Amino acid sequence: MNIHLKVLLLEIRNFLLGNTVLTGAISLLLIGLYSFYHGHHVISRQQQTIASVPAVQKNHLQQIVEHGTGKAAGTTAYYPFFYTTNPASPWAEFSVGQRDVNPFTLKVKMLAIEGQLYDSELTNPLTLLVGNLDASFVFVFLFPLLIIAFTYNALSEEQENGVWKMVRTTAKSIHAAIAGKLLVRLITILGIALLVFAAAVAALRLPVSLPTFKLLSAVMFYVLFWFMVAMMVIALGKSSAFNATALVCIWIFLAILFPGAANILVNNSIPVPEAAETAIRQREGYHAKWDEPIKPTMEKFYAVYPQYRKYPVPDDKYSPGWYYAMQFSGDLESAHSSEKLFDKLMQRQRLSERIGGFNPVIAAQQSLNKIANTDLTSHIRYLQSVKAHHRQIREYFYPFIFEDTPTESIDWAGYPAYEPVRYTDEPVRSGLLAILCWTAGSLVIALILFKRNFIQIKDIQNA
Amino acid sequence: MHFNFITIIARQEWASIFRSKIPLSLFTVLLFVSLLATFTGWQYVSKFNHQQKTAHHQVHDQWMNQPDRHPHRVAHYGYMVFREKSPLSFFDFGLDSYVGNAVFLEAHRQNTVNMSEAGFSNGMLRFGELSMAMVLQLLVPLFIIFIGFQTVAGLKQNGVLKIMLCQRASFLDILIGKTAGITGVVWILFLPLLLLCLIAGNLLIAGGINADALLRIMLLTILYALYFLIITMLVVTVSAMSKSSKNALMALVLIWMLFFIVIPKSAQTLGSSLHTAPDKIAFEQAIEADVSKQGDSHDPDDPHFLQLKAATLKKYGVDSIAALPVNYGALVMQEGETISSGIFNKHFDNLIGIYKSQNAVSSIHGFVDPYLAIRNLSMNLSGTDFDSFTAFQKQTEKYRFEKTKKLNEIHLTQIKYQNDSKQKVSAENWQKQPDFTFRPVPVSENLSAAGLSLAALLLWVAAGIGALTYVSSKRAYQL
Q: A146 in a domain, yes or no?
C-alpha cells in the first residue's frame, strides 16, 4: 500500500477516534438543536401575535362604530387604531437579528404619524441584552471555537510528544503528512458544518431556494475563513498552549473587541439626535396650530390636497377638517428631521457594512441577517410601509370627514388593506467577498509560514 | 497551615509572574482596552446626557411658554421626559442601550418609553458593548487563566511539586500560596485602575462625588476583588487537578466558554420560555377589557358612571349636571383616568413581575456561573439594571397621572360646563407644576434586589476555599 495513503488512514483513525472530535461534534450539535428551538420559539411567538391581528382589528373597529353611531365621521375618526404587521421571513428563525429589538406590529391612528412610528414592543431588556442563541450564533460564535479545538494541536502535539521526528523520517514527503493532517480536519469540520446546517434546514423548515443556498454559502465561507486562521497560527510552529492562547485571543478580538469598538465608532460618528427632535417638532407643530388662525393651516393642507378646498371650513370655530389639517401640518413640520433620521440610519448601515469588510465575523453576521431580512434596513422598509399605509388611511377617510358623513354610513373596514413588506432579496456579494478575501489572504500566509517553519527547516541540532 | 510557607510561595508566584513577558504584554493590552473603554464610555455618556438635557430644556421651555389654553388641551399637549444615564453608566452599560430613552406623557394614555439605542442600531451592538465592566468581567478572567493555568500543573510536570511537598509544606499551603500570589498580582494590576477610572469618570460626568456614589464605587471595587479571587481559586483548583499544563489550559478555556457564553445565553432563554410574558397587543387588549368592565367613560349608559352622576348630583343637592357648581365633564374625565391608570398599573406590575421571574432564572444560575452574579451586581450598582429602568417607567407614569389630575382639577373648578371647549385659563396654572426629576434607586434597594447574586458570589468564595481544601486532601492530585 502506498505509504501516503497509509499515513492518511492512520491520521483519520487517530483524529476521528480521539475524544475531541466526538465531544466537540456532539456538544455543538446539541447546542445547535437548542438554538433551532430558540429561534423557532422567538419567531413563532411573533407570528402568533401577527396572526391575532386581523381579529383584534375587526373587533376594535366594530366597537368604535358602535360607540360612534349617531356622531359625525370626524368625531369617530379620532379613535380607531389601524394595525400593521411585519411578518418574519422563513429564514428569520435561522438568524433572529434585530427582530427581537424592533417592533413587529405597529398600530397607527389617523393623527400625526411621526409620534407613532417609534413605539416599542414590550420586551424584557435583559433578554435583549443577553441576545439570542439562534442558529446564526452557533455558526458565527461557536463554530470558530470548534475549529480551534480541532486544530490547535494538529502538529504541535506530535512535536511535543516526539512523534513528529518519526513522521519526518518515515513519511516520504513532509508536505503530504501535513496536508493529510489538515485535510482530515478540514473535511471533518466542513462535514459537521453541513450536518448542522442540514439539521437547521430540516428543523426550521427552510425552503430549498436561493436564500437558503446563500445562507449555506455564507456559513461555509465563514467556516473556511476560521480554518485558514487556525492554519496560519499552527504554521508558526509553536507549542499547543501557544496556539490555543493565540487562537482564543484572535477569536476574542474579532468577535468581541473589534465589534465593540466598531459600535462606538458608528454611534459616535453618526449620532441620531433627530429621533427626539422629530418627536418634539411634530408635537409642537401640531399643538401650536390650535392657537394660530385657522386659514394658514388649511392652506398648508390644501397645498397637498387641493380637492378639499371646496368644503367650507369655518375660520372662527372648531371643525373636524381643521383638526385633521392640524395633525397633518404636525407631520409636515417634522418631515425634514424625520427624513434626516432615516437617512442617518441608512448611513449607519453603510458604515457598518464598510467596517464589516475588515472583519469577517461582522461581515458574516450582517450577511446572515440580511438574507433573513432581520436587519435594520428591513425594519426601515417596514416603517416606510407603515407611513405609506397611514397615508392611504387618511386619504380614504378624508372625504367622509370633510363631508360630515355619519359614522354608521361609512364602511370602516373598507380602507385599502395593509400590504406587508415582501421578502427583499438583498445582495450579500460584498459581505461574502470580504470573507473570501480574508480566507484567501490567511491561506497564502499560512502556506508561506508552513514552508518556512516546517518544510525548509533542517535538523541542524537537536531542538 | 504554615504562614511562612504560604508567604514564600505567594511571593515566589508574584515574582515569577512579573518576571515573564507574556503577563505584562497581556496586561498592556487590557490596560489599553480599559482606558479606551472608559474614555469612550465617558464621552458617550456625557454627550448623550447633554443631548437629553437639551431636549428636556426645549420641551420644558415649550411647556412654560404655552399661551392661555383650555386645560384639557394642555393635558393632550402633554409632556416629554428624556431619560439620562446614571453617573456610573460609563463603567457598565448594563441594559442602557436596550431600554427606551424618551417617553411622551399625555392624558388617557400610557405610552411606552421609546427610542432605545438598540432600535437605531444595525446589530453591531449585539456582539456586546465595549465597556470597562466587560473587560473586568470577561477578559480579566481570561488573563487570570493565561497567567495561572500552569501554576500547579507546571510544578507537577517538572517534578518541583514533589520536592516542595518534601519540605514540610502541605499541598494546601502551596495552593493557598499560589492563590494568594496570583490574586495579589491581579488585584494590584486591576483594582487601583478600577478605582481610578470609577472616580475619574464619576467626577467628570456628575461634577463631583457624593456619599452615594462613593459607596457604590467602594462596593464595586470590593465585589470585583471577590470576583477575581473566585476566578483565581478556580484556576488554581483546575491547575492542581490537571496532569499537565496543557490539560489545565484546555479545561479552563472550556470553562470560560461555558461561563461566559453558553450558560448566560441558555439561562436567559430558559427564563423567557419558562415564564411567558404577554406581547404588546395582548397586554393592551387585557387592559382595555378590564377598563370596559369597570367603567367606560365614553359610554353614556355605563353603570359605573351613571352611579357617579347620581352621587355627584346628590352631594351638591342639585338635579341636573348643568346646575352643578363644578364641571361635571372634568369629573368624569378624572374618574376615567383614575380607573385606567389603576388598571394599567396593575397589569404593568404583573408584567414586571413576569420579567423579574425570567431574570431570576439567570440570577439563580449565578450559583453555577459566577459571571452572572457579578454581571447583575455590577449593573445594579452602576444604576443600569432592570430596577432602575422600571423605576423610571413607574416614576414617569406617576408624574403623568399627577400632572393630568391637576389639569383636570383646573378644568373642574375654572372651566364652566356650558360652552366648555370655548374657554381658556391662564398659563400660570400649569407653569406652577413641578418638573419631572428622576429619583435613582437607592443603594440599599439595589443591593437587596441583587440579593441572590450577592449570595451566589459569597457562596462562590466559600466554594472556592472548599474546593482548594478538597483538592489538597486528595493524594491523586499531588502526583
A: yes
User: Closest Cα of chain B to A414: distance in Å?
Assistant: 23
Cα separation, B147 vs B315, in Å, equals: 80
Q: Tell me the per-residue pLDDT of A412-426, one tens digit each, with 9 for 90 and over.
A: 888 999 999 999 998
For residue A86, what pLDDT is reported?
95
> What range defines the domain where residue A262 resides?
3-269+357-455
Measured between CB atoms, does A169 come within 8 Å of chain B? no
3-state secondary structure A89-145: CCCCCCCCCCCCCCCCEEEECCCCCHHHCCCCCCCCHHHHHHCCCCHHHHHHHHHHH
Q: Which residue of B has its CA nearest to A281?
A: B59
In the block, residue with C-alpha cell 431574570: B359
* Single-letter code of the amino acid located at B442: P
Side chain identity, residue A297: T
Indicate yes or no: CB of A98 within 8 angstroms of CB of B120.
Answer: no
Split into its structural domains, chain A has a count of 1
In a domain, A39, yes or no: yes
Domain ranges of chain B: 3-478
| Three cell numbers written together for A259 | 465589534
Is A394 inside any structural domain? yes
pLDDT tens by residue, A181-194: 899 999 999 999 99
Residue A317 lies in a domain: no
Q: What CA–CA distance (Å, rounded) separates A122 from B23?
A: 45
Q: Is the separation of the CB atoms in A355 and A315 below 8 Å?
A: no
Q: What mean pLDDT is predicted for residues B412-422? A: 85
3-state helix, strand, coil in chain A (%, to 5): 70, 0, 25
